[in-house]
Amino acid sequence: MPAGQTAAQAPRSQAERTAESDARMLAAAVELICEKGADGTTLKEVGERAGYSRGLAGYRFGNKAGLYRFVVRAIGEEWLAELGRAVGRRVGLAAIHAATDAHARFISRGDLKTRAFYILWFSSVGPEPALKSVIAHIHARRQQDVEQWILKGIANGEVSAEVDVTSVARHFCAAIIGIVYQWLVTPDDQSRISAMHADLKQQMGLSLPPPGKAAAREQADE
Amino acid sequence: MPAGQTAAQAPRSQAERTAESDARMLAAAVELICEKGADGTTLKEVGERAGYSRGLAGYRFGNKAGLYRFVVRAIGEEWLAELGRAVGRRVGLAAIHAATDAHARFISRGDLKTRAFYILWFSSVGPEPALKSVIAHIHARRQQDVEQWILKGIANGEVSAEVDVTSVARHFCAAIIGIVYQWLVTPDDQSRISAMHADLKQQMGLSLPPPGKAAAREQADE
DNA sequence: GTAAAACTTGCTTGTTTCAAACAAGTATTT
DNA sequence: AAATACTTGTTTGAAACAAGCAAGTTTTAC
Fold this sequence. Notes:
Largest sheet of chain A: none
Number of helices of chain A: 10
Low-confidence stretches of chain A: 1-10, 215-222
Helix content of chain A: over 70%
CATH topology of the largest domain in chain A: Tetracycline Repressor, domain 2
Distance between the termini of chain A: 71 Å
CATH class of the largest domain in chain A: Mainly Alpha
Shape of chain A: elongated
CATH architecture of the largest domain in chain A: Orthogonal Bundle
CATH superfamily of the largest domain in chain A: Tetracycline Repressor, domain 2
Oligomer: homodimer
Strand content of chain A: under 5%
Mean pLDDT of chain A: 87
């Protein structure tokens, strides 16, 4: 039984109980992943740190992969919603700049959730089908969003129709991943991360020229 | 006792024995990491698949982190040497283009070693100090090499002195990481990877303009 | 309408299995 | 015979699952 709450004897519904234990175990998992890594975290500790028994995490999520799937899904959805709000109704380069800024804020906020999210993100590269599919899904949605922004920018007349939409979107997503990697392995240097986001925004400006000027791609092909 | 080799009864030196068992365990580890991921690989299986007892890998490398340190160091050194040969005495943009091409060949060669190397690379993001320091070292060397190429390109008069050397080098390394990530999670699409390397080369061309023209950075700041 | 019985679900505790880690032993080279 | 490569025994601890207890929820009886 979770500590505290001795005052109210009113019986909580089962839905409330699971919601609370889920939330507490999510928080515990985030802490432990940041402290000991995804590999070093044990289901036993997650349950106990959340204020329950050693067995609850295993019972609720089935296994470690199930727990991590839950964690990534929960934080990922939260982040995608925040990203949507930050971008708003912007399109084209403006949308990409807003998204980049939101991402910069997201990872420089010093939130444990962000760090745990990306630790799990990179841990899923191996042939573990469980987590991988969840992350691939988030990744694909991200990239589709970026493609949509560019396409709407073209339709809007802000971006040249000659740009290779999927190629630029892919490049953007890859660059974000690269930045996140740098941040994870050297989290101390805060200004470095801001600089990399600024660089990326500027690079995307070159990749998405207005219709009048030739696309950067053609410029470079002598 | 490793199977085969029944013909020669000539006693092998101890150095030869360890060299062989090291090599066999390296190969076994690479296979297992690709099959089951870094997490799913066990020291027991590594020893047994290499043709030895269940205990040898643990005895030789101390623990799993030690094995992975060995694997990353071995493959990493091999790759850095290959990279050095590919770049040769080139400097500036030519060096970066050659390095990008070499990297494209490296990861599109379909070699299990490459895949295992990068699986371990990404697995080290958590707070596991052991592997992390080895990888951080390789990462730092890569980035220093890139900085040197750019600096020599500037000294050579091929590249504008106005470019922010560390910033561009960092961006290049981050982009490579991003591409590797894409390759690891969706290894099927071969042409996608080539396209991303081509994009990167072209982007670097914009980031490293010749001395006459203004740097891309200044161009974008309206 | 309400109270007790029947059922469902949240959570805990026992138990098995298996890998990690290390100690102690055997075989091979010097 | 001394040292080194390698193997085997043993302990510890987590994962996974089964079985049980307790709290919540629905059904039935009056």
